[in-house]
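Re: zinc ion structure - here you go.
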Amino acid sequence: VTSPITFSGSPLDRVALARRDAAWLETQRTDEATRFLPLWRLEPLIELGPPRSLAWATQALLAGLEPAPPTVLLGIDAGVAHFAVDVSAVEDPEAAFGVADVARFEELRAVAGQLASEDAAIAAQARSFVDWHGRHPFCPACGGQTVAERAGAHRRCIACGAEHFPRTDPVAIAVVTQGDRCLLGRSPGWPETMFSALAGFVEPGETLEEAVRREVLEETSVRVGSVRYRTSQPWPFPSSLMIGCIGQATSEAIRIDPAEIEEARWFHRPEVLEALAGVGRTLTVPPPFAVAHHLIRTWAEGADG
Ligand SMILES: [Zn+2]
């Protein structure tokens, strides 16, 4: 997989050590060069462009906000600190910030394909962190109040002291192949010709390979032998890691679980190549925005042997 994976490739250094230094953090928060990415109800502020890009603010924009909105230090780039700031409490924030003519809060999934890969990656990190902090005001161990530490790297419970770290949920996503064919599935509600790799959350107590075999078996009744990891993609909705694999089928007959997918079929390589070229009549595959596209392409172009 050579082309960039959407939501990967952030230029920011997450500064695991420096963020422990409270004095350094305070300097960064008040530095006029420091950049703040506002998110409103998980939507990042995007410049209208063109080109579309993240609309960074300075601390001056946030000075009038009471109470002070939550921030997360995303990292530094060229010596400049970059924070995400959750402005969800602001009513009509584009008007409040005076940016309605130049920028708009937008759903990341809808706008990511128009952003430079670096911006999409930063927005993904920001969205996942802000979402996690918003969901974890209380300690899952004792119910006590939690507070952010190390500029948002984790939270600590005031009552029992437990540390809670942002989680990433692993999702196994696989193109299953047999000779010149690959197995793809269609979810309910998708267009008639749209098929993709099969996917499901890795469950506690199983390996990635076992998760692929279980998911494919559950959804299609097809058995999978060897499984090889190919690439992964951060998926900030809210915070998954798509782990892309190619698996070798050891059986052919398909019997779908209609609770999980609507249809699954074996597709021959020429049909898949047409779909990847955007000229398929019978098959459409996900766009390069999705890791499934890269997995399907890797197999179809023979890069996987
Ligand atoms: Zn607690």
